[in-house]
Design a protein that fits this description.
The chain is mainly alpha-helical and about 90 residues long. About 60% of the residues lie in helices and about 0% in strands. It folds into two domains: about 35 residues, no CATH class; about 55 residues, DNA polymerase, domain 1 (Orthogonal Bundle), CATH 1.10.150. Helix 2 runs antiparallel to helix 3. The longest helix has 13 residues.
């Protein structure tokens, strides 16, 4: 039996990628997607891309709130039920 479950939120618990949504709000969506592609294909290091993307986006608290609300609005089907079941079983998430 396990006591903890860890989830990657983006495209797992919610249907969106938070960094892409923030980038769209900042007007740098395509540039950020290209950096992500390069990192996923091993052309750039993930550490470098994380910093570069955030430096490009420079999200405001208001933008973060918008994306947080969108994440909640676009939950993956079955997420609430899955989390509730895990909590009922005493599993920390």
């Amino acid at each position: 039996m396990f006591t903890h479950v860890f989830f990657d939120c983006d495209s797992t618990l919610t249907k969106i990628e938070g960094i892409d949504a923030l980038a769209e709000l900042a007007g740098v969506g395509e540039e950020v997607k290209e950096l992500t592609r390069q990192a996923m294909e091993g052309e750039l290091s993930l550490e470098e891309v994380w910093k570069t993307r955030l430096d490009m986006i420079r999200p405001t608290p208001a933008q973060i709130e918008i994306v947080a609300r969108r994440c909640i609005a676009e939950l993956t089907p079955g997420v609430r039920e899955t989390l509730n079941r895990l909590h009922e079983e005493g599993v920390a998430t």
